[in-house]
Amino acid sequence: MNQPLTVTAAQKAGPKLTAGIVVAALVALLILPLLHLLPETSALHLSAYSLTLTGKILCYAIVALALDLVWGYAGLLSLGHGLFFALGGYAMGMYLMREAAGDGLPAFMTFLSWNELPWYWAGTQHFLWALCLVVLAPGLLAFVFGFFAFRSRIKGVYFSIMTQALTFAGMLLFFRNETGFGGNNGFTNFRSILGFSITAPGTRAALFLAIVLLLAASLALGFALARSKFGRVLTALRDAENRLMFCGYDPRGYKLFVWTLSAVLCGLAGALFVPLVGIVNPSEMSPTNSIEAAVWVALGGRGTLLGPLLGAGVVNGAKSWFTVAFPEYWLFFLGALFIVVTLYLPRGILGLIKREKAQ
Amino acid sequence: MRAVPHLMLEPAFDPSGTSRDAIGLGASASQGLDVRHGTLLTLEDINVSFDGFRALRDLTLYIGVGELRCIIGPNGAGKTTLMDVITGKTRPDSGKAYFGETYDLQRMSEVEIAQAGIGRKFQKPTVFEALSVFENLELAQKADKSVWASLRAKLSGEQKDRIEEVLATIRLRDSRNRPAGLLSHGQKQFLEIGMLLVQEPQLLLLDEPVAGMTDAETEFTAELFKSLAGQHSLMVVEHDMGFVGSIADHVSVLHQGHVLAEGSLEEVQANEQVIEVYLGR
Question: Considering the domain boundaries, does residue B8 fall inside one?
């Protein structure tokens, strides 16, 4: 009775059906890594390429979900979520580089003839500290940025432009060799994680499982938030911020909370993405990446939680097929997709499905 | 419903309060609010100017506990600016603005002022369109409104009952699950009034509450406001003279950012200056 419209609508469309599909999808995703572990001769064997590709898309799906929390619910369109994703990835990458380098310096530092690690690399040989960094780096940056942006009541397109500028600045900073993160090559040539070879099928399967679990946890968290009074306050904030203030709510705290939470989710996704695909470089922070994330959310359906997952899957699935089949036309296709969504599907794929159901 | 009030200059305070319990507001007035001298809102010598335009000049206005005050005046007289000053949206250049004896409105943020007990209804009805009627009331309801509280909030039986009561009062019981965006203009007006009721403010600021309402709705609103006075103080900005006449004990006429006249509607309507600037036009 007291849920936001989106949830209510999903329930009317058949709550059991929706829940059933979600559970089935999760089960299928949990089976995939097991198929990868089968011997290569087996007919059911899943190649490393397919598993990695699926894992990659799932990481993007987490980013889409995190973006949906701030955009779909609180109305803050971030065009800089790639930055938080990359920061999480870099934090994990630092650990992987240390693990690969053993007692020495990471290879790229030797090339620069550095003799010692910069101070901020301290402790990164410990997996647990790297995990802390995965949360802290994007979390703190988002908190500080959000604190000042929301205090100054920056919203709408100005907020979007600032987040875009932020990720662009991050990219330029990380491109520099002096920054100490491998310049434009970033981090690659990882060997092991927690002592397990990074290319072993078992490691890959475990990483994939971790991604699925993170996705499931993010989805559960998203639903819990959307159904709480907190979620309704966010919706109210999106539609009539002034009214909310005169009701006695301070919007800053609400925005800051969901903004920081979203950044941390992105960081976690990035941290699992990097060991799976084996590379992280500053191009992850490029503005187009963050804009693409917004396309996933818009295509799937803002403020629906499940929609953005669908959007990330469809766009990235299409991308991997298109870039192989028609390499030159991928960007045209992406542009056309965005135009179609903006003109004809204001509520995304999920909105379309719901409308079909309603008729 | 109580009888039509005699027009009088003193705040209309009915200490028994019995006749005003029609919608179950109970004793909500003045928790932690010091109103020793019977004055809820004190505005003295308020000046506001925008780029040289003086929107309010030496405005002085007192609102008593339980009073129902109407503010009238021609367009551009500063009525909305006055509400902005009280709710902290606009900061006066000079002057004194106190809520009760102790709350200095100039030192408080908009949110703090709302939490202290001043509720506002906008000129254009503003509700949370994507949320249902019930959810709109739930959000507005008096409660701990911090982030942590909202994350764990669950409606108690008492709170639900209170929302049900208000739903009945504003005649939106059957629409409780409809998105507020689908309501008619008049229904949105009532929903916003309902949101103020559950917020339980001591002072309600209402900017043109009956604009766009049918005659029957206007009449009902007049009855509602009269039943609220006493427990709450109301400040109503309105153009509809018929409506003003049916509710007001006490009218202030604003002209060019200044209080031109105060008194009963009959008195101000008889005032030469008022006729000149406003009513006679």
Answer: no
